[in-house]
Amino acid sequence: MRLGKRLDAPEYCGLEVFDIVHRARSRAHDRLHGGKRVLDAVMQLADQQTLLLFGTLGTPTNTAIHKYVNAKQIPHILLNTGATKWGDPKNFPWTIGWNLSYQAEGRIYANYLLETKPDAKIAVLYQNDDYGKDYLKGLKDGLGDKAAKMIVAEVTYEVTDTTIDSQIVTLQGSGADTLVDITTPKFAAQAIRKSVDIGWKPLHILNNVSSSVGAVLTPAGLDKSVGLITTVYYKDPADPQWKNDPAMKEYLAWIRQYYPDGNPIDIFNLVGYLQAQLLVQVLKQSGDNLTRENVMRQAANIKDAQLPLMLPGIKLNTSPDDYFLIEQAQLGRFDGKEWKLLGKVLGR
User: Fold this and answer.
1) FRET label pair with 128: which of 63, 193, 249, 250, CA 20 to 30 Å apart?
2) Dihedral angle, C-alpha 104, 282, 275, 158, nearest 10 °
């Protein structure tokens, strides 16, 4: 299915614009400085008979346009962010996220620690914004009344920081034997490297946002990444266990043909591919009635969708009262080459 024509629009601060479906991809610089520019760009698109926005990247970027697109009743779907606020159909009925929610992921880590390491001394490193605080809330909610005793240190960083080396040294000094690492890819790679370089060997739990073998673990050092724990819900193209997987072969053939300049192991490319597959389903469900209202109705009625590049057993669902699309994941431990899946699919 082809939707419109790609237009180059550098003035839209990293937005790639389509004349039927406008997908916004915001670069890191835009997430730091471009909230108003992104809103201005979306306001212009709203005047161009935009059908929907999908795959917009980042919590700050999406927060900048959240109220506006809902007021304008523009479908704002499959957001590349797991902030819990994207699952609020009562107050924001035109927005649906993509990721497993950060709070749900935090609760999964809490349950894992309660079951496997109930005496853990936990240090938490997190980004000082809604993204980091969402994860932290989920972790604390999952630990319940044991959170105050088990969490011995909390340290934040800013997205404008150049390094988090000092934060890692501070957390090591807390005496913690477990690190819950709520960082974006650049800082996650730094945290992995620095922990090993200073001789600190905690149980290292890494949020899914930064679990890419190609984009994070390889730059950090695969040998230094051994033992990391994360949640997994889609297949990583850099992970050798999926080398002969038919769906992965199809994806890699597709990217070679249609996006030869793209990095095939960049996890964001794979996520975009998955989102496009789900968007096709939503549009097929919409039939010939391609109105904003009907597209949003279909996006809010996804039933047991199974995409071949999601982990086996992961099903995608929404309903008018439940906008959390991905509510299942599996824990994985990195062995130096790939994420070895642990246990069963968790969630509902």
Assistant:
1) 193
2) -50
The pairing of strands 122-127 and 151-157 is: parallel
* Closest to 310 (Cα-Cα) out of 230, 255, 248: 248
Rounded CA-CA distance 137/120 in Å is 18
For residue 30, CA distances in Å to 34, 75, 279 come to: 4, 22, 25
For the stretch 204-248, pLDDT in tens is 999 999 999 988 999 999 999 999 999 999 998 988 889 999 999
Strand 6-7 versus strand 17-18 pairing type: antiparallel
pTM confidence score: 0.82
Closest Cα partner for 3 from 71, 41, 55, 69? 55
Alpha carbon 62 to its chain's center: 13
Q: Each residue of 42-85: pLDDT tens digit?
A: 887 776 678 999 998 888 889 999 999 999 999 999 999 999 99
The H or E element spanning position 114 is helix 102-116
Tokens 């999406």 -> residue: 62
What tokens were used for 340? Answer: 């070895």
Q: Name the 3-class secondary structure at 124.
A: strand
CA–CA distance, 270 with 189 (Å, rounded to integer): 20
3-state SS assignment for residue 334: strand
The predicted pLDDT at position 48 comes to 65
Specify the 3-state DSSP secondary structure of 2.
coil
3-state secondary structure of 7: strand
